[in-house]
Amino acid sequence: MSRHEKGRPLPPGMDEPAFAEPWQAEAFALTVALHEKGFFSWGEWAEKLSAEVKAPGVAEDGSDYYDCWLRALEKLLAAKGLAPQHDVDQLAAAWQRAAHATPHGKPILLENDPQRAG
Questions:
Q1: Quick one: pLDDT at residue 117?
Q2: Dihedral sign, CA of 65, 44, 76, 111?
Q3: Which helix (H) or strand (E) element contains residue 48?
Q4: How far does Cα 102 stand from its chain's mean position?
């Protein structure tokens, strides 16, 4: 159910919400916040995002735009030494394990990762 169907109309000129899923809005906000804190320039960001959007295998209809966004952010943070890819991969795997270990309908918490050390 969209925001429009819940009785909250979208702003004029918008047919669909800007973000299809909450994680997309979070990735967007994180990128803007990191830029505003001076971790990278907007030019650096645009270069990384452009490379991801133009990469082979990307959906021509743009349906994976925020997947590209996330890959670009991960690569930029790794290039800057802020979040090495290995660390990002380990954390992503921990979240996946936590998700699989969490009962349906309960919040997914990193503490639910069965491999998490004590």
A1: 62
A2: negative
A3: helix 42-53
A4: 21
pLDDT digits (tens, 9 = 90+) for 3-42: 344 556 766 766 777 888 888 999 999 999 999 999 999 9
- Of 38, 37, 26, residue with least CA distance to 69: 26
Residues 6+ apart with CB under 8 A from 40: 34, 76, 80
Find the distance separating the first CA and the last CA of the chain, reported in whole Å: 40
Q: Give the closest residue to 73 by CA, choosing from 58, 64, 83.
A: 83
Q: Is residue 28 within 8 Å of 69, Cβ to Cβ? A: yes
Tell me the pTM.
Answer: 0.74
Alpha-carbon dihedral 40, 64, 54, 41, rounded to 10 degrees:
-10
Phi and psi at 49, nearest 5°, equal -65, -45
Question: How many Å apart are CA 80 and CA 84, to the nearest integer?
Answer: 9
Amino acid letter, 96:
Q
